[in-house]
Structures are given as structure tokens and as C-alpha cells.
Automatic annotation (TrEMBL):
Naturally occurring in which organism (per UniProt): Falsibacillus albus
Pfam families to which the protein is assigned, alphabetical: Glutaminase
Protein's gene: glsA
Family annotation (SUPFAM superfamilies): beta-lactamase/transpeptidase-like (SSF56601)
Name of the protein in its database record: Glutaminase
GO molecular function, a single term: glutaminase activity
InterPro entries: Beta-lactam/transpept-like, Glutaminase
Length: 309
């Protein structure tokens, strides 16, 4: 079932919006502190038909951890499954996304999955290129291709803010370098990674990227296969099992779609063979997920019968 109208979607947004009061804006990334707690917007992109939206859906925000899905798709395309998963695992974790605990307690000392910070850093380290500048160029070109917008870039203030406060990520990198999970200069890696997290777009862009994954890597608008069906499937599987941090199990029960959140308040959804979803609501719960975004997705999934389970 598709949305009946933008007015219907607007009503759902207004029902979900008040829940933002129960969350808070992320405070450990200084450049994100000034977000408006009450903001909530959504776009739904159907490859074969209408485009729906509600709220300030053209307002830009940074991808943060949503970028992990995109980088994973790029690196899997470049290096293959065997190379990627020799350094990163496939298992969910109940620990926080920035935890170092499992790195210390498992052998070999590789991250459990690509959606936690350690795993994402290891994946970003595998982007091909002769230096960190070329690796960044490859990544942003891929993002622009997915979003079909050559002007997408990153927010310098946010990336600088994250780079200057990335002490825990530095610790994760040096631990993994000690165990040969990552290679090269840690500061160059963090330069790419913080830019990756600071890639800036709106709900419309995000919904379009979600639609590419929903349609098995195929871009119906441009008539081209951007990533292979198998890679799109793997990315969606990680979104289901690990995409909402350590609330992924509850999210699977209540919403039941592949999705990935970020601490800026963004959520990308990919309803298989149906549509892509982009949401922005910067007020977060204790797990790091958008409070009003989760409520909105729960209502939409029930109304439009989106759950894959």
C-alpha cells in the first residue's frame, strides 16, 4: 500500500512530533548541538511513481552512521566479500556502537560488524586509492551517484568538530592497527572517516538512496545497476540486524524494515521492492536513535504494511 497523499503523511508527522520532547540532542559532537529538538521531516521515494514528503524535507543534515551502509557497499564492490569480511565480522552486538570491549575480548581482534564504529573505521580504511584524498574522492563520487546529485558534499564545521573530538575512535584505530586490522596513517583514516560522517544531504536524497538499496541496487530513475544485487542484499541484512545500534532487535519487532540511523537524527529506510525512506528528527533516545523518527516509522510500517516479517 502506498501513501494516499502528502496530507496523510503530514498528519502522521504531527502525531509523531511531540515524542521528540522525550529525547535530547547529541552533545558529544559540538557542531551538532544547535539542532532544533522539535524538527521532524520525511520523504518516501517510490522508484515507479509518486514522491511523498512532509515537514521541512529539504533541510540538510549530516549522515553520521548512515554513511556506514554506503561505504560498505562501495568497499564490497571494490574489494569483494572475502577481503572485507577477513577484517570485519557479520555478527550483531548488544554493546554501544562506540564500544571497545568486544575488540579486546574476541580472537581475532576484529570488529563484530561494519555498523559499529570499529567496523566502520576498518571498512573506510579499505577504500581503494593511493592516498586519503583519492579515497575521499571515490567515496563522495559514489554518494553523488546514489543520490543522483553531483553537488552533494560534506559539512566542514561538523567534520572538523568530529575530528578534533575523535579520541575514542583514535583509540579504536590504534588498537586495530596493533592487530593488523587496519593499515596506514590513523590520522589520514580519521580525516576520511569524519568527512564521511559529515556528508550532508536532505530527506529527499536519503530516500532516493534508500530506494536504490530497496530495489536490489538498481536505480530505476537512471536505468542502471549501481551496486550488485548480492551487495544490496548484504547491506540490507546488516541494516536489519545492526542498523539501529543496540536497539535493532526491538526495531525489527516494531517496524520490521531494513534501516540505518545516525546521531544527527537521520534514518534511512529501504522497504524491499517498494520504496526508500529518509527521515530527519534530531532528538535522540539513549541508544542514539531519533525518538520521533522511530515513532513515525512504527506508524508508517503498520499503516502501509511494510514489515518484512
Amino acid at each position: 500500500m502506498k501513501c494516499l497523499s502528502n496530507e496523510e503523511l503530514k498528519r502522521l508527522v504531527e502525531i509523531a512530533r511531540p515524542t521528540s520532547k522525550s529525547g535530547k540532542i547529541v552533545d558529544y559532537i559540538p557542531a551538532l548541538k544547535n539542532a532544533e529538538q522539535n524538527d521532524l521531516s520525511v520523504s518516501i521515494y517510490y522508484p515507479d511513481g509518486p514522491f511523498y514528503f512532509a515537514g521541512d524535507y529539504l533541510k540538510k543534515f549530516t549522515l553520521q552512521s548512515i554513511s556506514k551502509v554506503i561505504t560498505l557497499a562501495l568497499v564490497l564492490s571494490e574489494s569483494g566479500v572475502e577481503a572485507v569480511f577477513s577484517r570485519v565480522g557479520m555478527e550483531p552486538t548488544g554493546d554501544p556502537f562506540n564500544s571497545i570491549v568486544k575488540l579486546e575480548s574476541t580472537r581475532p581482534s576484529k570488529p563484530l560488524n561494519p555498523m559499529i564504529n570499529a567496523g566502520a573505521l576498518a571498512v573506510t580504511n579499505m577504500i581503494k586509492g593511493k592516498d586519503h584524498k583519492e579515497r575521499w574522492d571515490r567515496l563522495i563520487h559514489f554518494v553523488r551517484e546514489l543520490a543522483n546529485d553531483p553537488y552533494i558534499s560534506f559539512n566542514r564545521e561538523v567534520s572538523d568538530s568530529e575530528y578534533e573530538t575523535a579520541h575514542l575512535n583514535r583509540a579504536l584505530c590504534y588498537f586495530m592497527k596493533q592487530h593488523s586490522i587496519i593499515e596506514g596513517d590513523v590520522e589520514y583514516l580519521l580525516d576520511v572517516y569524519t568527512k564521511q560522517c559529515a556528508i550532508e544531504m536532505n530527506c529527499s536524497h536519503l530516500a532516493r538512496i534508500g530506494a536504490v538499496f530497496a530495489m536490489d541496487g538498481y536505480d530505476f530513475t537512471m536505468g542502471r545497476q549501481i551496486v550488485s544485487k548480492d551487495i544490496a542484499r548484504m547491506c540490507k541484512t546488516f541494516m536489519v540486524t545492526c542498523g539501529m545500534y543496540n536497539a535493532s532487535g526491538e526495531f525489527a519487532m516494531k517496524v520490521g524494515i531494513p534501516a540505518k540511523s545516525g546521531v544527527s537524527g537521520g534514518i534511512m529506510g529501504a522497504v524491499p521492492q517498494k520504496c526508500g525512506i529518509g527521515i530527519y528528527g534530531p532528538s535522540l533516545d539513549e541508544k542514539g536513535n531519533s525518538v520521533s523518527g522511530l515513532k513515525l516509522l512504527e506508524m508508517m510500517s503498520e499503516k502501509y504494511d511494510w514489515s518484512i516479517f
